[in-house]
Amino acid sequence: MNNIEIINFAERPSLVSQYMLELRDTVIQRDQMRFRRNLERIGEIMAYEISRRLDYKTVDTTTPLGIAKCQTPADKVVVATILRAGLPMHQGFLNYFDHAENAFVSAYRKYKETGDTFDVLIEYLASPSIQDKVLMLVDPMLATGASMELGYRALLSKGEPKHIHIASAIASRQAVEYVCKHFPADRTTLWVGAIDDEINSHSYIIPGLGDAGDLAFGQKE
Q: Distance between CA 221 and CA 206 in Å, rounded?
């Protein structure tokens, strides 16, 4: 198994812990707007932390009184999201990486006729070139890791990224192991708000928070 870098915000004090508490709380999460905003705020904090990992260049900027030397990212960034649950966190990343390009992948579970087993299918992809760019893959729930990997594989049709940052609010222990096995260790970083130990027979994270897409945007049929 590859030993990719894992940044678990639950292991160090920050406001992410408060937002995670509210995401999980069965009373607070009934407020869809607050649920979306908490995912967005976690995305903002992760985006800031990731920004510290980018390469920067110095540019001259004209001010009213002279020329100032300023730092600006040298890396080109693509923020990619697994629809639909990833949209609030994606917005959080865009609030900080407002010059980033964007990619969207639709991945869904197609359950088999019997039992709880399912296949993950990619239905839609819209992406710029990711060749030699920093790719940020955003999805709030990393349950098995299969959807994230399939989304990544689909994006590889657009090139090979310089580095991959995977950002999730909650990941299962199983998904972390899956990501470590299926993503390149030398250029992948996993950012999570918390890591939970279990998934149930439906591949939902336990204790998790429920269905992030339904909580953010309403139930689907």
A: 23
Q: Is the peptide bond before 84 cis (omega within 30 degrees of 0)?
A: yes
Residue carrying structure tokens 């865009």: 94
Name the residue type at position 33.
Answer: M
Burial 187-220 (b: 16+ CB within 10 A, else e): bbbbbbbbbbeebeeebbbeebbbebbebbeeee
Residue type, 43: G
List the structure tokens of 105. Answer: 């992948």
Q: Are 152 and 164 in contact (CB under 8 A)?
A: yes
Q: Are 170 and 143 in contact (CB under 8 A)?
A: no
Structure tokens of 43? 């995305």
- pLDDT tens for each residue of 21-79: 999 999 999 999 999 999 999 999 999 999 999 999 999 999 999 999 999 999 999 99
Query: Please, which residues have CB within 8 angstroms of residue 102's CB and are 6 or more apart in sequence?
Result: 78, 79, 80, 81, 90, 94, 128
Q: How many CB atoms lie within 10 A of CB 112?
A: 9
- pLDDT beneath 70, residues of the chain: 1-2, 108-121
Give the integer Cα–Cα distance in Å for 87 and 100: 15
The pLDDT assigned to 166 comes to: 98
Question: Where does 25-131 have alpha helices with state H?
Answer: 32-51, 87-96
Q: Residue 33: what are its φ and ψ, rounded to 5°?
A: -65, -40
179: helix, strand or coil? helix
- Residue appearing with tokens 């990719």: 4
Q: What is the pTM of this model?
A: 0.91
Q: What amino acid occupies position 50?
A: I
